[in-house]
Amino acid sequence: MNPFTTLDATAVPLRAENVDTDQIIPARYLTAVTKAGMGAGLFAAWRYLPDGSPNPDFVLNQPQYADAQILISGKNFGSGSSREHAVWALTDYGFRAVIAPSFADIFYNNALKNGSLPIPLPEAAVAMLMDLVEEDPGARIAIDLPAQTVTLPDGQQFHFDIDPYRKQCLLQGLDDLGYLLANLNAIRAYEAAWGK
């Protein structure tokens, strides 16, 4: 996993609520066991027409949002089945963070465990962000994980909460196993001292 400290990037507004994991990555893409290439199936039912060509009306196919690294969506993002592939598809496509009013718990935790930052913000703040990037697709949004803030181009700032352990894992680019291995000497020292 790559460490996540700060991100200064453009964003894509996905005006949809209750986006479930099957919409994020349809079941037919779940046969792969590797993360590489998952981005091709991201929002496939919306991104592609029945003949397989790109749907020009879908926001990810609009050139002004190319190379965005932040996805902004409606409440209850990532609901549905526990599908780690959903996070894999988002990160393989290039999204480092998702901002929404709320997330399904399983998706939220899967995202954090895979180096992606889900940021819950109030609905009014999310609506403001969506309006901003629709009016100015080149607007850059700054995410500062150490400070736990999202900053707009005009300097307006929103604070977000994150579990301290998950924050440290993201900052260090570690999953759960990586965190344990990085702290193995401290664990052994504790066990040795406790066992006496």
Mean pLDDT, all residues: 93
CATH architecture tag: Alpha-Beta Barrel
Could you tell me the CATH topology label.
Answer: Aconitase, domain 4
The separation of the N and C termini measures 37 Å
Contiguous low-pLDDT stretches (5 residues minimum) are: none
H/E element sequence? EEHHEHEHEHEEEHHH
Shape: globular
The major sheet is characterized as: 4 strands, antiparallel
Lateral strand order in the biggest sheet: 1-6-7-8
> What percent strand?
15-25%
| Extended strand count | 8
The helix content, as a percent range, equals: 25-40%
**Helix count, DSSP H or I runs of 4 or more residues:** 8
Report Rg.
18 Å
Structural class by secondary-structure content: alpha/beta
The structural domain count equals 1
Tell me, what is the CATH class?
Alpha Beta
Within CATH, the superfamily carries the name Aconitase, domain 4
Summary of the model, kept short:
With 196 residues, this protein is an alpha/beta fold. Helix content is 34%, strand content 15%. The protein has a 4-stranded antiparallel beta sheet, with no helix packed on it. The protein has a 4-stranded parallel beta sheet with strand order 2-3-4-5.
Describe the structure.
- The chain has 196 residues and is α/β, with parallel strands linked by helices.
- The protein has a single domain, classed as Aconitase, domain 4 (Alpha-Beta Barrel).
- The strands form two sheets. A four-stranded antiparallel sheet has the order 1-6-7-8, with no helix packed on it. A four-stranded parallel sheet has the order 2-3-4-5.
- It starts with 5 loop residues before the first strand and ends with a helix.
- The model has no long low-confidence stretch (mean pLDDT 93).
